[in-house]
Amino acid sequence: MEFKNIKLELNEGVSLIAIDRPKSLNALNLETLKEIDQALEEVKENEEVKVVIITGAGEKAFVAGADISEMKDMNPLKAKEFAEFGQKVFRKIELMKKPVIAAVNGYALGGGCELAMACDIRIASHNAKFGQPEVGLGIIPGFGGTQRLPRIVGVSKAKELIYTGDMIDAEEALRIGLVSKVVEQEKLLEEAYNIAKKIMSKGMIAVRLAKEAINIGINADIETGMSYEAKAFAVCFATEDQKEGMAAFLEKRAPKFVDK
Ligand code: HXC
């Protein structure tokens, strides 16, 4: 499908989705959200795609938030639909059976920070800025920010960021665990691809099961999480990759995983 507001590329097993609305710093209007949703469907179905990277086109912004000019005149019903649709799209990222890496190349504010938080791994360039500035507009985060930010950085820091609307830089985001790595902007995509390649060299069924176990556990009590982990661990032993991985280790050679 042809896209107007995003770019979608496939390079050696890695799908790159770049939000591309430079005039409004890649702000998310409904049309862009629909295109992201469509791109996610395509990468989900495409067996060639093993890992997904999400970034922002240009050097200034990842995504500067939901599109304020589009939200301005929404009535409560439309606002609810908009929030629910964005939540559904971002949840699709979280539930996708493929790892998704956010390469945050500039402003990740409001809906942009929420998009990054729905991804499995977040890395950032030095010029990246994060924040949930919604209260400054008289609204609250609506694409999952009130739910994911406290799970990622803890309740106190999340409340501080959401109540004050403060923007933090990449170093601070690293310090509080909002991102896991900070690199030079020119190296950001290269680093995202390096992480993707490293993941693709492993048993991808195992990676998928690990994602599911972490996602289930983070939202459940520890007994439920442990129980899911043990079952997922057992499932690994029904795969060729487990046999190959362990045989390769014992034979002191590199494994050849087949994703089966
Ligand atoms: C619409 C936006 C936008 C946004 C930037 N622009 N962010 N348009 N929605 N979220 C537009 C500006 O209006 C401007 O358009 C152009 O992009 C360049 O932005 P400037 O402000 O001129 O750039 P700069 O001075 O460098 O400031 C960058 C900035 C600032 C700090 C990122 O643009 C900013 O504060 N943006 C809003 C951030 C924000 O509040 N995000 C949260 C939105 S609420 P023109 O036409 O003047 O050139 C949200 C809710 C999510 O995300 C949940 C919904 C359910």
UniProtKB/TrEMBL annotation:
Single GO BP term: fatty acid beta-oxidation
Superkingdom of source: Bacteria
EC numbers for this chain: 4.2.1.150
Keywords: Lyase
UniProt cross-references to InterPro entries, sorted A to Z: ClpP/crotonase-like_dom_sf, Enoyl-CoA_hyd/isom_CS, Enoyl-CoA_hydra/iso, Enoyl-CoA_hydra_C
Key word Lyase present: yes
GO MF assignments: 3-hydroxyacyl-CoA dehydratase activity
A Pfam family assignment: ECH_1
Metabolic or biological pathway: Lipid metabolism; butanoate metabolism
Stored Gene3D superfamilies: 2-enoyl-CoA Hydratase, Chain A, domain 1 (3.90.226.10), Lyase 2-enoyl-coa Hydratase, Chain A, domain 2 (1.10.12.10)
Catalytic activity: a short-chain (3S)-3-hydroxyacyl-CoA = a short-chain (2E)-enoyl-CoA + H2O
Family affiliation: Belongs to the enoyl-CoA hydratase/isomerase family.
PANTHER family recorded: ENOYL-COA HYDRATASE, MITOCHONDRIAL (PTHR11941:SF54), ENOYL-COA HYDRATASE-RELATED (PTHR11941)
Subunit description: Homotetramer.
Name the UniProt record assigns to this protein: short-chain-enoyl-CoA hydratase
